[in-house]
Structure formats: structure tokens, C-alpha cells
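Two records follow; treat each independently.
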Amino acid sequence: MKEKDLEIQELALEVIDMLGVALHFAGGKDIKKLIDLYLEELEEVPEDTPYNQEQMIALINTLKTKYPKLFV
């Protein structure tokens, strides 16, 4: 069971890394802060809303609107 837990943790870190890359290419300056804000915004999304590429893009656009100083 520990091996599976380790795999899940590694995958979670890879997902966070990919989010950081997406935020970088969206013009983000403070990636760590933006990841925290992204996760906060994600908590506000209704549970029945599908989480897909469109939702991720919408969340990043929300961050760009709400926190323009954190983007180029």
C-alpha cells in the first residue's frame, strides 16, 4: 500500500509542476503564490462542474483578472 501512496504523491507533485508551467506560460510572475491562489479558486468551483482543460483555462483567466499584478 505504501508504494501506491508514494505513486499518488509523485503524481500530485507532477500535476502541481504542470500547473506551474501553465501559469508561467500564461505570464505569471510569482508561480508559488499563483498556485496557492489557483487552489483557493478551485475550492470555489461547484463540485458538479467538470474539471477539464476548459475549467483550468477559466481558472487561470480568473487569476489574471483578479490579480493582474502577478502577471506580465
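The next record belongs to a different protein.
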Amino acid sequence: MKKKDRQMNYELLRIIAMLMIVCLHYLSKGGALGDPKQELTTNGYLAWLIEAFCLVAVNVYVLISGYFGVDSQNFTIRRPLKIWRQVWFYSVGIGLIMLITGAASWNLYQGMTYVFPVVTEHYWFATAYLLLCLLMPFLNAGVENLDQKTFQWILIGMLLVFSVAKTVLPMQLPWDHKGYDAFWFVFLYLTGAYLKKYKISGGIKWLFVYVTGVFAIYLSFLMLQAVYLKLGKLGDFISYSYSYNYLFTYVASVGLFLTFASVGKNWKEKTQKIISTLAGATFGVYLIHEHVELRGLWKMLFHCESYAHGSTGMFLLHMLGTVCVVYVVCTIIELLRQKITELLTDAIGKNK
């Protein structure tokens, strides 16, 4: 099997992960998730279940980076710079368009988030991922020189600190950022690296692990909600299981990742090209629709919350349609950016 064929399954997973991320934003930023401190409607409980299925998306995205990044022998600053340029382009570009059209009003703080998107965490994922990119050569060097047993103990230790502790202790740990940070990304990267280095076999059997993890997240939510509604206790912990570094979220993420190890064996060349093109645009999809000036469109333009209070059928159709429209539009914009960048680079190169 060719190298391209081996990678297509995970490139497909990258696309699915980004679709899940868009779905998460529909639910959370669109107001479709009901207040867990109140008795929810059928759509409310359904929304939280869908949220659980999609919650693994960010973890999976970073696992893919670790799986392939561990083979990178020579560090080059080009990769983090390329990511930074893309982040800056959309942060400033979309911000300027919104200001010029009057869709946004100017203030100094907002302007700083446009111009310095990484240090201001305009996009938290981009900030954490860029830090991870800078740490990759150190992580790869460590992975290369560790024996399997030592590697396992390091992963177990990190899992206990960053995941198990927050899962079992009924308190907010001071260092816990729910997985929205580079420390958690380092652990995920090392997990992906371990799976690759020691050739952990995947397959459809891991789908059971993914689904079990998802329902464990959801059942944890339902139990804590029941406790709060009956006793008025633990209200701040109802949605605690909906964290990227929650133990069941991590288990489900690894389960879905390894499920895709056996997806597709003989990809047609045309299919490979389509998947590669779409996968290459996924980060752009995130940067566009998650811009600080566009987050409000989930409510103002798409009226997600209104549909969440309607019939279940219309809610599901609206969610599916909206997520697909957002994904397709953002993909087209990103592919156009890539093409224009390529043409400008070629033109500059010829004039040198």
C-alpha cells in the first residue's frame, strides 16, 4: 500500500473532525444547548448527546499531528510560520472587512486581538497548536530515545495529572483549563506518537470504545444533572464531563482515531485528490467561522436557538444544513486563499 493510501484514512478523519468542530460551535455558540440546571426538552437532551459525540474532534485533530509528526526528523521554522501567517491573515483580514462594512465597531482591545491573534488567544486552538509546533523537535527527540516501558510510564503519569485527577475529584483544580491549553496538546501529541511508534493496531473494534466513551460522558452529565435537580448540589459540575481532558473524552478520542486505522485500503486517485484538498483546507475552515466577529452569526443569521426550541426533525435538519453550508463556504474561501497565495508566490519567484 502506498504512503498516500495509508494517510487517506486519517486525512478523511481530519475532515470529519472539523465537521464535528463546526457542529460543536453550532450547538454552543448558537445557543442550542439548553441550560443543564433546568429540566431540558427532548431537543435539549438530544443536543447534549450530539455534543458528546462531537467532543472528541479537537483531541483527534491533535492525535493525528502526533501520529505523523513523530516521523519528522528535521525541525524547520517554516511550518509554525506558515500557520502563524494563515492565522494572522484571517484575523486581520476578516476584522478589517467587518470594520469597513460597519458590521463591527472599533475599539483598541478588539484591534489588538486582530493584530496579535496568537498572544491574545483570539483563536485558543491556534495558540495552543503553535506552542505545540515549537515543542515538537524536543518531543520527537524524547520519543526517539525512550524505551517503550519508560514511554508508557510517562503517558500514565501525565494522564493521571491532566485527566484522571480532574475526572474523579469533585472540585475545580487550579491548573485545569479543560484541555484548552498546550499542556494537554503535548499529552495528545505524545499519545499519537506512541500509537505510531509501537504500531498499535486499530480497526472497527475500536468503534465500541468510542461509542462507550461518548455514552459515559453523557451518562455522567445526566447523573450530575439529576443530583442537582433533586438536591440542588454540584450545579457547577453538571457539564464537567464535557471537557477535552475528561478521561472518557480522551478514551473516546483514541477509540475513534484507531477506528479509522482500517478505513479504506485502496483509494482511487481521484478520491485521494478530493480528500487531500478538503483536508488541507480544514484549518482555514476553523479560522474563518471562529473569528471573533463572526461567532455571533450562529444566532443572528442562522437562528440556531429558535430551531432548537422547535420540532426535533426541523432542529436536526437545520443543524445538518447549517453545518454543511458553513463548512462548504469556509472551504471555498480557504481554497481561494491557497490558490491566490500560490499564484503570488510564483509571480514573486519569477521576478527575482
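Discussion point: Residues 3-351 form one domain. How would you locate this feature using only the C-alpha cell line?
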